Amino acid sequence: MPRGHLHFHGNTNALLARSRLLWDLLFKLLMLINVSVSCPSKCLCDADIGLVQCDFLSLQGILEDIPQWVRNLSLVGSDVNVLRPETFHRDGTRLSNLTALLLINSSIQAIEALAFKELPRLTTLDLSFNRLTAIADDAFDGASQLEVLKLNQAFQTPAVKPLLNSHWTKPLRNLNRLELTGNALQSLPNLVFHLETLETVNIGNNAIKRFDEETILHLSFKKKLGLYFSPNPFVCDCRMTKMFLWLRNSSQALDAQSLKCYAPSSLNGTDIMTLKLEDFKCINEDLETASYVFFGIVLALIGVIFLMVLYLNRKGIKRWLNNIREACRDQMEGYHYRYEQDSDPRRSNASTGI
């Protein structure tokens, strides 16, 4: 093949390579220009991962400037107060492509009905560090794609128990992770057992002392559910033995090796999984309980025997009581006779005459 022909092909390949490089640079430049134009003021944007991050800005103030390509929206300290359907839809701005929404420390107090219906692709929602006092039963209608829900330290203390019910969780048919740390919970909420697809629950940093038998029974029917417990103020006494046996025989406690006793003081800071059954001192407590029961039985038997003796000797007792009564009557008659003799005026005069 002639040299000129080879040289021509070499130039063609070089030109093609340069063209591709030029187009790549042009595309990236256009993306940068697009991001810089559409990114809200004072926010951080990354179009490659679809991220818009804004700190301590009003959601309504930036909603019109949020780009359509956003998939991950992070709003920290946005002071939203109430979540409504129109919260995420204003003047034609839609967030229909949003898959992850973080509203952390945003002073949210209530979630109204259908609050997330404008976010049909939402899979991750973080409402941690808020002050929730009300959640509508149909608040999550339209958010059936939600897979991760984080509610760490998200409730006002008095409202925790009434809010953690299964009414508003019914639409969450794909939820597989739930976080409830720092909410002063004293037990595992029942809503956990109503979420069929749930795989992981984090209930660390609460006020749980132990699991009761009913909770352990429910957990035994949800073998695929894993729990994170640490830290919690576990009381390692006799009443915790059922939970201790469950921890040893089940793989559902994902951080079992890090669980520690808070009380009694003799076991404070001790790893629960290093304990033995005798460390819970159930033997002495059982003996003490048995001794009280035995003492009560003995007293009851003595009472029954006493009543039987009284019943069997009722005639003799009646005779004895009659004899006492007759003796008392005779004694009283003797006293009465002497009193009459002493008070007779004739005896008094006769005594004076002498």
TrEMBL record:
Query: Do you know which Pfam families this protein is assigned to?
Result: LRR_8
Residue ranges crossing the lipid bilayer per the database entry: 292-312
**Which residues belong to the signal peptide in this entry?**
1-38
**Under the cellular component aspect of Gene Ontology, which terms does the record hold?**
plasma membrane
* Keyword match Glycoprotein: no
Asked whether the keyword Transmembrane is assigned, the reply is yes
Q: What does the UniProt keyword field contain?
A: Leucine-rich repeat, Membrane, Repeat, Signal, Transmembrane, Transmembrane helix
Task: Report the InterPro entries cross-referenced here.
Answer: Cys-rich_flank_reg_C (IPR000483), Leu-rich_rpt (IPR001611), Leu-rich_rpt_typical-subtyp (IPR003591), LRR_dom_sf (IPR032675), Wnt_signaling_inhibitor (IPR052286)
Q: Where is the LRRCT domain?
A: 232-283
Q: Which GO terms describe its biological process?
A: negative regulation of canonical Wnt signaling pathway
Return the protein name.
LRRCT domain-containing protein
Q: Which gene encodes it?
A: tpbgl.S
